Known about the structure:
The structure is a homodimer.
Chain A: H1 3-30, H2 37-55, H3 60-70, H4 79-94, H5 99-122, H6 125-144, H7 154-160, H8 166-188, H9 204-218, E1 227-229, E2 235-237, E3 243-247, H10 254-272, H11 289-303, H12 307-320, H13 330-337, H14 351-370, H15 378-390, H16 416-436, H17 440-444, H18 449-458, H19 468-476, H20 483-498
Parallel strand pairs in A: 1-3
Antiparallel strand pairs in A: 2-3
Amino acid sequence: MNAFPALLAEIALIQDLRSAAALLDWDHQTYMPRNAAEDRASQLASLASVIHERETAPGYAKHLEAAEKEVADFPPDSLERCLVRVLKRNFEKESRVPASLVRELAETSANAHHAWAEARETSDFSLFAPFLERLLDLARRYAALFAPYRNICDPLLDNYEEGLTAQHLDPLFSGLQEKLVPLLRKIAASPQPDDSFLRENFDPAGQLRFSAEVLARMGYDFTRGRQDLSVHPFTASFGLNDVRITTRVQPDAPLSSLLSSVHEGGHALYELGIDKKLNRTPLANGASLGFHESQSRLWENLVARSLPFWECFFPRFREIFPGPLADADTAAVYRAINKVTPSLIRTEADEVTYNLHVMLRYEMEKELLNGTLSVKDAPDAWNRKSMEYLGIEPGKDSLGILQDIHWSMGSFGYFPTYALGTLLSAQIWQTAEKELGPLDADLRAGNFAPLLDFLRSRLHVHGAMFTPQETLRRVCGVTEIDPACFLGYLEKKYSALYGF
Amino acid sequence: MNAFPALLAEIALIQDLRSAAALLDWDHQTYMPRNAAEDRASQLASLASVIHERETAPGYAKHLEAAEKEVADFPPDSLERCLVRVLKRNFEKESRVPASLVRELAETSANAHHAWAEARETSDFSLFAPFLERLLDLARRYAALFAPYRNICDPLLDNYEEGLTAQHLDPLFSGLQEKLVPLLRKIAASPQPDDSFLRENFDPAGQLRFSAEVLARMGYDFTRGRQDLSVHPFTASFGLNDVRITTRVQPDAPLSSLLSSVHEGGHALYELGIDKKLNRTPLANGASLGFHESQSRLWENLVARSLPFWECFFPRFREIFPGPLADADTAAVYRAINKVTPSLIRTEADEVTYNLHVMLRYEMEKELLNGTLSVKDAPDAWNRKSMEYLGIEPGKDSLGILQDIHWSMGSFGYFPTYALGTLLSAQIWQTAEKELGPLDADLRAGNFAPLLDFLRSRLHVHGAMFTPQETLRRVCGVTEIDPACFLGYLEKKYSALYGF
């Protein structure tokens, strides 16, 4: 056996290059000085080129085949077999993409990121429009390499969630919408909780301290990660011993920064829980973006928006902010953090409306990619759909079409994974409670270890060894996402909160 | 002509990879979480491998030759000709180094860096000793690739200062020592200024604010750079539009952080002043490390340790620190910042003793590399030499052999460039004053533009286009470093300060 070890060495090197690119991107979004943007785009493009070149090098396919033969007798769920499966899949995709397109994608998206940030700051869509046009064109050219397909979104969806297609997604989403709209109507007809006390002045340093304490209690290891500030919160991983998160802090929205920290913390816990044997391979990753989001959404919603969580943390929260919280209590924070109201910003949406934000974006993506909607008309289309899905309209594009970072990164087909993750989070939670018993008492005691242990041993440890479907089977014992779990959870929680 | 443009594209890509490696290293020293060290070492080693692989790829030599022919008729001082010269020199060196040694050097030095940091923190040389042993062995193996040589240090010196050899350096250093020792004796026999007021409590945030203001006034562009904290101050460049500096801050040593900021600021101004046409080529660099140090030392010593500088900045300095500076005045700060006293830490040494610190290290390096001194005996040897050169002995290794980062990075032969830079700084200053007239009035007014313009147009703009010798000719009109300039400057300044 020598092809396989040689393959391992080569992919470790490639994975190191990926980690380097991830660090360049992290720095881009956190500390990079403004005028370095263009050079940074070149650097990211060069790394992407080198990675692509090595992954599609002449001889690589044969090398992969030889390695596959060497490990053919290994168990199907061994690291070796799983790795070969993933490498073959990646090669099959990568080898269709010409080097020039790889470079163009990397360079354009790095430059577009800066145009987007400026456009968002000044709420001027025209600054971003030409980049969006180019990025859509590149995405179409990319998708075309995978023809035939039923929907141009399919090859893009498959990049984030193996096997996902519009054909699968559309009925899932319309079924979900059908149930969410009446629930939302019932809530809207009920009296709303008061959350005005959360719009006082909460010192940013105190917010960051509180988040860090919650993260540490969740099990986030600050010797293998750190938290910084960025315009759009994100998680970045540079190997399994360095998984960092970012957040943003506004004085009049302390829960927004906390929830974003917990959300990214959930992503980070996933990566930090992956078996270290998978480090420096493409398996050192979540099973899919849907599964990744299942972890961030689970911690954000099922943990940090729960009553027992606030029973645990409210005293400390008030200790840090005695002024604004003088008259508040646990129940008031619990009600406020779960206030359901159609809002403009996805990342700050409540659990009930959240998926509607995702559907809006997915609909936009389909129309933009299929060419039935032009970039010029996109802001108006966004506003119209916002009215249709949420009943409100953004007054300016920074609160509408410019709010999300994803398209500026050329990431089309990414949004649906947020909804899948949300559905999965409820399904995984149900399984955890079925096996561990109700988790309320643990949460109330700030004891997250049993939950984290369950997630680690059932999901995290496997990294990207298995397909999303097989991963779901291993975690929950089923092979299909079941929206009923999520809908049941919503129904129960919000009927109690809103008294219907 | 097509070989040359293709070559340009390839070296731009390689330079991008170098910038990525530099960012990994910057992060390593600033923000990286502790437990990521081992993975970071792999990542740096992988980047070094890929860079080396491309720079010594089969066909590269022929490609270089073809490109050289294409530009043979260009003027000798054209970008094209200069670039080909540097690429040929680099190839000649790189192609002698086996890939395995490249990887081993990168990996060992990244790991050694962490061992050194821990050893320094705990003042426990034994933690670093095995790494130093390995690094010396690697350096010897590296040097052996360039045999024959008169001294094993020569191939290492040449990496930092083209053409520099021990044969050239030794008489320069002994001549310098001959003059410095009597000067130091005269100073020691004179009454010492009082600098106790600088050991009060100076708020670190205020120190950083003051440094940033001074840097901005010097012309450092914070849209193309930033300042962070690190154990050992350094400058890092990720292309010509992103040149960052770091500093360290101690409450009881406000001038230490200021001088380190100005020193690194001098390095950064050099890189930021390089012709943007040279970006993404190996010419986007200083002419040599000696020239790089000439810039940092010029700003640190001839500017920030001068009386007119403090006439300009003292009022602001006292405004930020009204408490500790209540009874101080400009003259007191000027005297204190120029207090000459044998001390243990090189980076905080005064102008007179500084070069003695360098000589000590260079002597150590020669003996360690030649094998006449063992790693085991090195701490004692350091202490003995410290007594010999400076008249004092470090009480612990963190103040002795462990104080500098360089050996932990595998950088042997680097230290002498600090002394060369110091000599050059005085020579360049003399030329600047010869052409611009005395600079005192400008400095007093905080007007650094005429000085910076001179440095930019005469030195910075050329980057690494020319050899150190040719660069010196272009800047000062001579081809040899003349220690008399520096010695004359010292004699004049310190006889006035100490009244002899």
